[in-house]
Design brief:
- InterPro entries: Spiralin.
- One of its GO terms (cellular component) is membrane.
- There is one protein chain.
- The protein has seven domains: 81 residues, no CATH class; 82 residues, no CATH class; 80 residues, no CATH class; 78 residues, no CATH class; 84 residues, no CATH class; 85 residues, no CATH class; 79 residues.
- It has twelve helices and 32 strands.
- The chain has a four-stranded mixed sheet. A three-stranded antiparallel sheet has the order 2-3-5, with no helix packed on it. Strands 7-8-10 form a three-stranded antiparallel sheet, covered by helices on one side.
- It is of the alpha+beta class.
- It is flat and about 140 Å long.
Amino acid sequence: MKKLSLSLLFVISITTSPVLTLSCSKEVRHVFEEEVDMLNMGDIEINIREPRPNDLETDYINEIISIFENWSEDLVYKTHYEIITTNKEPEFMVGDQVYIKPVKDNNKIYGKIINKSTNLISLSELDEELNLIKPLPGEDKNTFDKLLIEFLETKIKGIKLETDYEVIYKMKNDLAFSKGDSITVTSFPKSRIIRGASVVQINIFDINTINYEKAIPRINEKPSDVETRLEKVIQTNVFDAKKDEDYIIEFPSNSNLLKEGDKVRIVAKKDSRILTGENVEFIVETYNIKDLKETIEQLDFNFKTNQELFLNQIESAILSEVPQSQRGLDYTLISNTDFQYFMPTDIVELQIIPGNHYLIGEKLTFEVPKLDLQVIEDDIANIEVQLGVTTIQEFQEEVNSTLDLLSSDIDIKDQVEIRTDNLETTFNGNSSVEIVPTNNSFFFSSESKSIVKKMEYIKLDEVKDFLAPAINIYAGATFSGMANLIKEILWTDSRFSVLKEDIDFELTTTSGNQFLHYTDSICLSVIQNSNLLKGDKIIFDVNELEIKGIEDELNQVDINSQNSHLENQVLINNCLQEMVPFMREYIDYKIFIYEKNKAVQNFQNYSVIFFGGKWIQNQTSIDLLIK
């Protein structure tokens, strides 16, 4: 069910009374306060590094400015923050300080001053990078020495060999590196740039640290196939390692195919430049498919999983463990569904074929799990319910549509149960709906948390916000006319059209008069037992009569010096009786005639004086000039 929202423009013309009726209380004022989110200096401090010795001040400041701009493009240097340095030279030296602080009274950034100090650079910071360039056993020392010096003096600006640091080699062979050699880069105490040391060990690989999981020898495999697979794994981990030079692979003698219990060994040669470690030994055994169960359970096997894709993934997993095995010859994969995509409780079975050469084990069964009911929770929450209009049946139809979208292959509308405590045909403010899986549902899990949708009463504040721009009551209006207008406007909104007078709300007035005085008010109150509306009351205050509109009309009256006083007075009274029929002469107003210049006969002015009290607060007069 879709909710229809109408946007209406009202042009209200009341011919039975000239009183304008268009707002809600004497003044409706909306005050908007702008909230400004300011950034905290502490959040950016971690991104700003310490200045290094010999860093150019200008480069470092530009680096900080870039960091601030990346943080927020609205931050402007010297407008929102400033950078103060204590160095006396263009380049930083140890001990120089940098202070970054927000500019006073800026509207973008606040917080503590950031202080960065220029300190000696610790060589240990280079440990990770030095390990990336360290030499292999057999590499030439002199060649590496040049590479190392170039790396260090490029990485740390201004350092010099024998001035700031030295390189100490501990080597078995003076010309080329060997296993167990070490290289130490250490700083001199007198250096004004660096401190500490960094030690590099020559690369040595233990063959036992390599993961052979995908290359384990299996029964009935050819030794040559196994050898190729193991060689590939070793070379992937140790690129320069060479078979027969750094390691050998040993197989049982005179064996064309590996048998149960055969042993395959990887042996690192003692004179290898690269490899070391104890022998790696594999005992050949038939692969048990139970060892594959955990791997398969980690695959995507759920509602709407593509059946062909899943079966192919199982086949790939088996091949990665037993490369010689073949589907249909050594094992079978059987699915109980004819659909392209799996449904909950669908089953896939992996079973070995008796007499095969590669696999053993009991049948493995995998079942598509039932869905948690929460998969439709958001869709249920988005179903629009109009209080007093939407029926239980219509809600059921929306739930059914959601279920149809979830499962287009099979009908699952009978897999959920809708429970409600609502005793009426339509929903009201205290209604709620609970959706649970049906007993023995094949689609939704019985352990699912139920979906509860609670209806909400129409809030009186919402009614007020809707009426406020459209209702303005002036003195002289009738209570019945204004009450009808309030109801008429209220019911133009589809949500509020269900509200009924004397059932959900009532309209009352403080006035005991036929026509409303400016001190009166109209009250829209919620009836206590309403099933649709919640709140207290809305007060519509009556405004003073607008004299300006009366003045404009009186100025159109043909009052002229050719008429007698009585004739002009009748014209004025007739106009007033049309515009403000609730006013009485001498009670609410009087007409005053005066002559400005007695020497000029018939040059007279008229004034209409409106008394304060009922219709306006203070006495007001209108001067009319004789034409």
